[in-house]
Design brief:
12-stranded mixed sheet, 12 strands, 33% helix
Length: 349
């Protein structure tokens, strides 16, 4: 505990007064009986680290020299990997591109125990997000994204629909990561929301879907995990407190729990029915790379809150998990149950 600030120590102590480490680990072990279905876009992330050479001699342009390349599985591939070490069964239903499919890379980097069904989207590559970074500071210079965010065709939609319909009843939790790149259509969304009591949703605003994508398309679910900035954008509200934002959002959608992530300011959880609110600090203030932190929080938190683990413990574990992901460049390594128990043992000893 010596490495944590006072806010983190106080949060941990509030849990220690109520729960023993063995009880917390028992809660984690109970999750292993669960079966989860993960739906959404598969993304391949690539980083190229560079060294600045200087200004071009003839144009007002920065010239950089490539040094190293890091390629890793993102999107629902990463979320499925993350969850698969905690539960009995994980299945992913997603799309790859018909061109530049990179299926071999995806399968090679997917945990072998994950069941999977990948459909192909016509006239599309598998979503590929390339970022150039400064090697010394690890700051991102520019992003080059190769994707087609047109809606899937009717034929593709029917295949996707039938696959989900065939599988959805068999699973305890439905984890939906909607990045807004055209695969979750109105028809697909309507099918998923028939099982709203076991739907855990993260729907993201990004550079491609800003102004067009909205969480309000999902009218009823168990739990929503959303970034604070995206929540403010959704409600067009720059200044209100997070409890007020959550209250206003809950008037527009039906949801049991809303978790709001706020980066280095931590995360908050609102139980809409009981009007209960929990704030949890961030457990790592020294960020190397925030890519994957939100997905990490979302995946782990969904498993815990869906398994009816104490809400303060849910927030603690999800926050610890996401703090692990920001200490590394990219998401080539993912948090797992062994990592978690090691961290908890260190914290609570």
């Amino acid at each position: 505990m010596q490495n944590f600030n006072e806010e983190c120590k106080n949060y941990i102590n509030s849990i220690r007064r109520k729960f023993h480490l063995n009880e917390i680990i028992k809660n984690i072990e109970n999750i292993k009986r669960k079966k989860i279905l993960v739906i959404g876009e598969t993304i391949i992330d690539k980083y190229i680290t560079t060294e600045a050479v200087g200004k071009s001699g003839k144009e007002p342009m920065l010239v950089v020299k490539p040094l190293n390349e890091i390629k890793f599985l993102g999107g629902v591939g990463y979320i499925a990997n993350l969850c698969s070490t905690f539960v009995k069964e994980t299945k992913i239903i997603s799309f790859l591109g018909q061109k530049n499919t990179e299926k071999n890379f995806v399968l090679k980097n997917l945990n072998p125990n994950i069941k999977h069904k990948f459909l192909l989207k016509k006239n599309s590559p598998t979503i590929n997000k390339l970022r150039y970074l400064d090697d010394y500071k690890k700051t991102k210079i520019i992003g080059i994204y190769d994707l087609n965010d047109d809606l899937i065709s009717k034929k593709e939609e029917n295949k996707f629909y039938n696959l989900i319909k065939e599988n959805i009843k068999k699973y305890d939790f439905i984890i939906v990561a909607d990045y807004g790149h055209g695969i979750i259509t109105k028809k697909i969304r309507k099918l998923i929301l028939r099982y709203n009591s076991k739907v855990f949703l993260n729907t993201q605003i990004n550079s491609f879907n800003r102004g067009f994508h909205t969480v309000l398309k999902y009218k009823k679910m168990n739990t929503l995990v959303v970034n604070e900035g995206e929540l403010r954008y959704e409600l067009r509200d720059k200044y209100s407190s997070i409890p007020t934002l959550v209250k206003n959002l809950s008037k527009k959608i039906s949801v049991k729990n809303i978790a709001v992530t706020s980066g280095i300011r931590g995360a908050s959880l609102a139980n809409v029915k009981n009007n209960a609110f929990i704030s949890c600090p961030a457990f790592n203030q020294n960020s190397i790379d925030t890519v994957g932190a939100g997905d990490t929080f979302f995946g782990i938190f969904s498993l815990l809150i869906g398994s009816k683990v104490d809400k303060k413990i849910c927030m603690l574990i999800a926050s610890i998990s996401s703090s692990f992901s920001i200490t590394q460049l990219g998401t080539k390594s993912y948090f797992n149950k062994k990592n978690l128990i090691k961290h908890l043992t260190h914290i609570f000893k």
